[in-house]
Amino acid sequence: MTSRRDFLKKAGVAGVAGATLGAPAIVQAQRKIRWRFQTYAGPALGEHVIKPAIDAFNKAANGEMEIDLYYADQLVPTNELFRAMQRGTIDAVQSDDDSIAAPVDISVFGGYFPFATRYSLDVPVLFNDWGLKEIWEEAYNEVDDVTWLGAGAWDPCHFATKDPIRSLEDLRGKRIFTFPTAGRFLSRFGVVPVNLPWEDIEVAMQTGELDGIAWSGITEDYTVGWADVTNYFLTNNISGAWCGSYFANSKKWDELPDHLKELFKLCMDSSHYYRQHWYWGGEARLRTEGTKLELTTIPDAEWATVEAEALKFWDEIAETSPRCARVVQIFKDYNAMMTKAGRPYRYS
Question: To bridge 127 with a disulfide, which of 132, 137, 205, 313 should be the other Cys (CB 3.0-4.6 Å)?
Answer without folding.
Answer: 132
